[in-house]
Records
---
Amino acid sequence: MMVHVEEQSLVTVDKSQLVEKATQMSKEGWRLVQISCTAKETYELTYTFDNNYKCSHIRVVLPKGDLSLPSITGAYFAAFTYENELQDLFGITVQGLALDFKGKFYKLSVKTPFAPKP
Amino acid sequence: MATRTIIPFGPQHPVLPEPIHLDLVLEDERVVEAIPSIGFIHRGLEKLVEKKDFLEMTYVAERICGICSFIHGQAYSQAIEGMMKIDVPERALYLRTIWGEMSRIHSHLLWLGLFADGFGFESLFMHSWRVREKLLDIIEETTGGRVIFGTAKIGGVRRDMDTFALNRIQGELKTIEKQCREITDVFKKDGSVQRRTKGVGNLSNKDAIALGAVGPTVRGSGVAIDMRKLGYAAYAKINWEPVVETGCDCYARCMVRCRELYQSFDMIYQAIAKIPEGPVDVKVTGNPSSEYFARVEQPRGEVIYYVKGNGSKNLERFRVRTPTFANIPPLVKMLGGCELADVPVIVLTIDPCISCTER
């Protein structure tokens, strides 16, 4: 009998520290794995990174009244897909996005963002 | 300066089994920029956690993809098992490895057929799918399903295979392996295949890492990233190394998949030789109340499952980042500077699975 649990670290930072932290991760050779958002009482964003099969997460919590955060596309260009997803599906404004689709990355037949407006 | 034209590629296109849209900015016949957009088949599967309990969600996870469905079910199960610290019987871990690698073989054979079709090699397409059918027969025999297995389960697997069945499928797999060699030799040596794939859709080693490529896309650029090295299921107990090619072009990505076929056959043989006796599942009690990220290597690359519980039977959040989503920025890079006629071949080399991407 065995359970496979991958060791993962998670650190919560203020959104003002996000770009600095992401730039540091990039310089240290971490690969961006994903960005996800959980929209409940607050908007909880998790940035996942990998370095040689080690997994590390950075978490940023946004209050419903302030749904904006800086882009990390300066450090990780590939973040543009995730950040456009945050804009399209969750209504979060990502400032300084290197490739901003302005709400047109997801071409859905239903109205977005899905998360209710505060 | 040449005249610039924008050509819409997709969402409906003969080489695309599923819809993705690219706005191709051309100068004469050369692509200078590709602008992707998705969302045509968004199904809202993540939101289903509000209606389905965490045990029922295994069936939903299996339906995220119609090709690597078993591995989606396995990844979801592993995420819940990691969150709830559920001990899984060792025999179940070996069975997951066997069915997972069968899924990889069937997915790669399907892709090889589609790829051959993409550059007009119809007979190679038919041969690839003919051999794939034999593998689907084994899957049907052992799980009851051809594509949606319904076999992954939190705490183990739903079905077992006895020694007689394991030995028999090993014999059948050896015949299929021999037939695969006839197909992959053509991909490897045929001049017409090489003319359409060598030096086309380049993705340098540096770009592959910087743009977050995964799966055969990153391994075709000389980077040995394969989540099976995390050691989940029985991967820590069998001998294998990630398949890597250094050509950085469409041919290299094709060769990674060809070689991974034989790696998967070998993994199945090793798993059959080492599988221990014992139960195949454990009873799951209680409700999940923390969070966990599970990473698994699918045929297209790394998939990550995020689950967050709140002590009730319904999860608070269920999120899936699929390999095709991660391979969109590398695809945009590969398309820059290519000829318009090469676009379908390049798009196919990331093995796009849009149903997974849209969820």
---
Amino acid sequence: MSDRPLKVLIAKPGLDGHDRGAKVLARGLRDEGFEVVYTGLRQTPEMVATAALQEDVDVVGLSILSGAHMTLVPRITKLLREQGQGEVLVTVGGIIPDDDVAALKEAGVSAVFGPGTTIVSVAEFLRSNAPTRD
Amino acid sequence: MAADATTRAHALADAAIAGDRLALARLLTAVENRTPVAEAALRQLYPLAGRAHLVGITGPPGAGKSTLVAALLAEVRAAGRPVAVVAVDPSSPITGGALLGDRVRMQSYAGDGDVFIRSMASRGHAGGLAATTTAAAAVLDAAGFDLVFIETVGTGQSEVEVAAAADTTVVLEAPEMGDEVQAIKAGLLEVADLVVVNKGDKPGAQRTAAQLRAMLVPSVARGGPAVAGNDSNGERPTPKRPDVLVTTASTGAGVPELLAALDRHRAVGRAAITSGARRTRAAAQVQSILADRLAGRLRAPGLAARTAQVIDDVAAHRLDPFAAADLLLDAALGATSDEA
């Protein structure tokens, strides 16, 4: 079934309360034909992983503006691997210094989207890189 | 059906029954996507389903359905019962995309393996649910959840499908949503087993509840039973007589009373199992599968050309649509091969 919509979890781990970007992206991906699960603010890594598992998503998109990405993101990718979802595409958006990108990719992140990224380019990346499934 | 799909279905179903939540999630994906795995798994799981209490929660957008489900989750978990939620949000008719936002209100259960929440997009289905919601609920039922809440998209007046999908249907209203005439219109309120006025801390909540109570009593001509069904002669369907409760989902006020009312309705429903929602649900499932099977036969190589020709004839007014339907039905019933 290749024509089914891709399912994307948009989550905001950590404590910053700035969810406008996540909401704009969630809405934009909806308009690009994705099924977007939005979980709201202040998610722990465990909450993100649980939602990813129960929803059986293809993609987890994390929005972090607090600077805590080097702590939160590796914990989330580790939890995903431990629960058998190592193939899920993980992307990060928000304020991420260039110096941290390599380490995030090392931790299992496929792409880091900074300010100015268009929704169309995010959608194209997800379509091209989401895992193929039966 | 491909043997590998059957093998994979049995592996996933066995694991899901044994408590593997990822296997359960993957089964639900197969059900949503209507894959061969889904059919084989549903065949295996169906005999195990029928034990859970399926509770439909419906009402207009913003009435508080998700918040109420979250409050019910807290109450149910305090009692130690395993509970699942299927929450449906609408798909875009333009792009097919969807924003599934019901988890925002229900996320305090990470690490609690006895809570399972799944969002579903309606995918073009119009009745307030997705076409596969009933099957998804059956999978969760078979996986051993004691209660399964089925939350519909925000509904208007006539999305009554949830009443067939659930054993007990809760219709949520917000205060001051309309006058008494709204309460006596046909449709959504008629399928309610329980009516809940949420946002009970808002002005007008008690008055709205009082108006609903006054208007939802049985009509003078014929008293209704607590569970809708047919009258004593089995002839005319009888209306339901729902209780009206007031809750404030955001604080939990009235929620224990609601759960108690749900449990009472479950007990009553068990006694009348074949005359109520379960029989309606069984009929709807069989009819839906029949229609799929019929369409599958008409699409199969042996009949596809014939079907196309008949459709062309109807389009050109050489054949009337009734005769065409009879012709194709006879042809499909004569065809013995399985669908392609």
